[in-house]
Amino acid sequence: MTTSATGDRSRAGFTLLEILLAIGMIAMISAVMIGLSSNLLAGRAAAPEDVFWKAAEAARRASLKSGRESELSFDDRQKAFVLDDGTARKTFPVPGADLSLGVDFLGPKGGASSSVLVGGTLLETGALPRVSFYADGTCSPFRVQFRSKGSAHVVSIDPWTCAQALGPQEGSP
Questions:
Q1: Structural domain of residue 54, as residue ranges?
Q2: How many domains are contained in the chain?
Q3: Does 20 fall in a domain?
Q4: What is the DSSP letter of 164?
Q5: Can you give the pTM of this predicted structure?
Q6: 23/18 Cα distance (integer angstroms)
Q7: Is residue 38 domain-resident?
C-alpha cells in the first residue's frame, strides 16, 4: 500500500479559489454589519448639543447669505432653538427632550455672570436672551450651557469661526 507524494501534497493547503471565497464571504458579512450598525445609529434621537450645532450652522449660513444679522435663542417651553434672520423664524426642536432640559447662552468666560450651586452642580446665572451671528461669518462671543437632570456642561464658542473653541473645556478634567 503505497501512496504517492503528489496525492498528499495536493490536500496540504487551501487553494486560491477557497481563499478568495473566504475573503468574499467576510467582505459580505462586514458590509451587512456596517449597514445595520449605521441604521441603528441613524435611528437614535438627536442630543440637544447636536441640535444646537445644526441651528448655529443655519444661523451663520443665513447671515452670510442675506448680509444681515441673525439671532439664535432657546425657547424653554417648546424645548427648541429659534433662529430669527429678520425675515422669518425657524425652529429646531430637540426631539425627545425631557422637562428638565435647559439651555442657556452665557457671556464670555470672565464676564459679568455669577454662579450658583444647585444640587451639587455649579450653574452659571445671568444668561443672555439670544446670541447674534453677523454677515461677515462671525458671531457674538458666548458660551452655551446644557442642563439636564441635575447635570450641566458648558461649551465655549469661538466668535471668529462660530465653532467650538479649542482648548480645555469647562467641567472637563
A1: 48-157
A2: 2
A3: yes
A4: B
A5: 0.63
A6: 9
A7: yes
Dump pLDDT digits (tens) for 36-67.
Answer: 776 666 666 678 888 999 999 999 999 999 99
- Cβ proximity of 124 and 81 under 8 Å: no
Helix (H) / strand (E) containing 20: helix 16-42
Q: Largest Cα–Cα distance of the chain, in whole Å?
A: 98
What single DSSP character describes residue 130?
-
pLDDT digits (tens, 9 = 90+) for 100-135: 888 888 887 755 445 544 445 455 566 788 999 999
CA dihedral sign, ordered 99, 105, 108, 110:
negative
64 and 96, same domain (yes or no): yes
- Nearest CA to 53 out of 30, 31, 33, 72 is that of 72
Other beta carbons within 10 angstroms of residue 105's beta carbon come to 19
Integer angstrom CA distances of residue 165 from 83, 84, 151: 22, 24, 21
- C-alpha 14, offset from chain centre: 47
What Rg value do the Cα atoms of the chain yield, rounded?
A: 27
Q: Which is nearest to 165 in space by CA: 152, 173, 154? A: 154
* Residues 25, 105 within the same domain: no
Q: Which of 121, 126, 122 is nearest to 142 (CA)?
A: 126
